[in-house]
Amino acid sequence: MQQITQIVDTYFKRMPSIRWTDIVEIIIISFLVYHILVWIKNTKAWSLLKGVVVIAVFLFLAAVFNMNTILWIAQNVVGIAATAIIVILQPELRKALEELGRKNIISSIFPFEPSKPEEGLFSDRTVNEIVKACVEMAKVKTGALIVMEQTQSLAEYERTGIAVDGIVSSQLLVNIFEHNTPLHDGAVIVRGNRVVSATCYLPLSDNMELSKELGTRHRAAIGISEATDSMTVIVSEETGKISVAYEGSLYGSLDGDSLKEKLRIIQNKPLDEKKRKLWKGRARNEK
């Protein structure tokens, strides 16, 4: 018993002292590793990670059996492989950094952008006019793509179109998307209560889980919702159905009242966490 006590005492004496900063470091590293793994799981990096694991197992076996030539090749290729991984994952890394910069904690410490006016992003009249236009276009199956800017600027996509700078009205929107008119092809960008640009090109979503039945218009709407915090209203030219794309999700089969409800959620301010959960829950129910 005395020997066991001496061994335990010796063991604990050799253990380094743990400071409170060490505990904080462990928590921070655990938090970062968890979120990195979650990010990898939802991107192309997941398949790449599995490939890296296979290569790591192969190199471990090479080290065990002293395969020096293979180990020498691996040592000289590591630098090139790291650069190649960065190039391959460039879109995912850019999106991850944009998401990090979009966090409220960063924005509160580093106010990179001027705050939005408190009176709201869109007036009641603007919401009503957009809903009215979409309902009218849905009846005659006129395709439409209306992007509503929130806190993140859409100037990058605005420059791909033709400047309009007109007050939002149902007549203006219907005329823009009318068949065989110069401005009907592409997206309309709405900033505040004005249509700022038409015939804009949007990035297509590369989400492989999207239904194959979705056309270019819906994929473009989801793509811009993944890249920014904007909301996009879609009217299908094939079915006449109204949908909304927001935060990478598509909410379909909306009528005038449900579309107005969606638009009013972001009318006055960006969504808080409670409203985000409400959106996500409704998206699951509507699919």
General description of the model:
- There is one protein chain.
- With 287 residues, the protein is α+β, with helices and mostly antiparallel strands.
- It folds into two domains: 2-109, no CATH class; 124-286, YojJ-like (1 (3-Layer(aba) Sandwich), CATH 3.40.1700.
- It has twelve helices and seven strands.
- The chain has a seven-stranded mixed sheet.
- Strand 5 (231-235) and strand 6 (242-246) form a beta hairpin.
- The chain is elongated and about 90 Å long.
- Residues 106-110, 112-120, 269-277 and 282-287 have low confidence and may be disordered.
- The chain crosses the membrane at residues 20-40, 47-65, 71-89.
- Its EC number is 2.7.7.85.
- GO terms for molecular function: diadenylate cyclase activity.
- Keywords: ATP-binding, Cell membrane, Membrane, Nucleotide-binding, Nucleotidyltransferase, Transferase, Transmembrane, Transmembrane helix.
- This is Diadenylate cyclase.
Helix content percent band = 55-70%
Domains, number: 2
The largest sheet, given as strand count, sense and whether it forms a barrel, is: 7 strands, mixed
Oligomer: single chain
Percent of sequence in beta strands? 5-15%
Radius of gyration based on Cα positions:
26 Å
Large-scale geometry: elongated
Mean pLDDT: 80
Report the count of strand segments: 7
Second CATH tier, the architecture of the largest domain: 3-Layer(aba) Sandwich
* N-to-C series of helices and strands: HHHHHHHEHEHEEHEEEHH
| Contiguous runs where pLDDT drops below 50 for at least 5 residues | 106-110, 112-120, 269-277, 282-287
- Class of the largest domain in CATH? Alpha Beta
CATH superfamily annotation of the largest domain: DNA integrity scanning protein, DisA, N-terminal domain
Q: DSSP helix count?
A: 12
CA-CA gap between termini: 66 Å
Structural class: alpha+beta
CATH fold type of the largest domain: YojJ-like (1
- Output the strand order for the largest sheet: 2-4-3-1-5-6-7
